[in-house]
Amino acid sequence: MNDLCGVFGIYSKDKKDISKIIYYGLYALQHRGQVSAGIAINNNGYIDYHKDLGLANEVLTKEILNRLRGNIGIGHIRSGNTVETTTANAEPLVAGYKQGALALAYDGSLVNYSELREKMEDKGVIFQSSIDTEIVANLVARHHREDIEQAIIKAVNDIKGSYAFVIMTNDRLIGVRDPYGLKPLCIGKLENDYIISSETCALDTIGAEFIRDVEPGEMVVIIDGDIKSIRTKEVKNKNMCLFEIIYFARPDSKLDGESIYLLRREAGRNLAKECPAEGDIVISAPDSGTVAAIGYAEESKIPYDEGLIKNRYVGRTFIQPTQELREIGVRIKLNVLKENVEGKKVILVDDSIVRGTTMRRIVAMLKNAGAKKVHVRIAAPPVKYPCNLGMHTPKRENLIAGQKTNEEIREIIGADSLCYLSLEGLLESVGKNNSYCTGCFSGEYPINEDL
Ligand code: SF4
Q: In CATH, what is the architecture of 261-446?
């Protein structure tokens, strides 16, 4: 039970005040969620924190950042598809256990959440939220006789699912990544300070140097200014979430050594080879389709230009929590650049069609603005299956490609033609050095085995 999230942590050897650095890190990760934000800071063994519903710049005001002082800190931002939008579900989660205070920030989703929660509730454990993080905190607390590193190893042996999380104690910062590497997590350095972040774009933003990715099944512990690596679980097969590559991550990030920008551009090139169309202009559904549209234009030799202008101050419609908000979100999010599409055969490139609502509206807007034809090209295969590993796409009955044929979808969205990149084409674009989970396209999940 969790949503797409962004996590960030810093250990400052020089005992800098770090709340502002975390704030800028979260700001760079804001695309991973717009529902809640929070920071927890360790000040000489006492953990102070602030979290609430809203964007990072709404929740973390100057006054709050001035109050949160210390040398170890973590931050979190959340999207809101799955768990209730309440302050109780905002993170970091700060908890006291027998060995002291802990703060946790989590990205991912536990598939055995309900089972673990029921067992704990049977033993009298009281929960204050519905987030996976509270389960992890309870599991760590249960092993209080062990040192914190052993307690975390024991805790992750009980959980099944996708995870990348940071934990702060009164003397260390810890980052943990699931054994399949479904979720991204990387390490950076800013002078003498170590950083752990969901994506490298946050390292760039704060001027930190990228050191390396946290390996699948690895725990990194930063204490006394040094970093050590501990294996938590055996890695069987690396399976980075393919949706991170095509949609979630920022194009200026590198995940597991691969530039998201280059992978998306390659997917756009392959899309042009597999799905040619007669057009005057290639445009994108901003922002997630933009890089693939550039690749499509390069390969097809049809010029790329702007056709839809995005209001950048509106969150991603797909991530908005309710259907009502999603509808409003689409209307206020995009406007057509009539000058570029009127009287033209438009090739519209996007990264995915999930429910179809947004695409139907965009095609209608383009036609209303005078586009002669609208050919929709998708730089990924149809999303036919739900995900339980972190993305929480809608149930199969709400996934348009889970219910309809391509021709039916074309008709529903009102396009003149519709074509998707094949799974082989997508894997050829992205799969040269890594292997990926393809569950929402193929229905085959790594979790089916023994995660
Ligand atoms: S099923 Fe899809 S969204 Fe879920 S982890 Fe796999 S690729 Fe990512």
A: 3-Layer(aba) Sandwich (3.40)
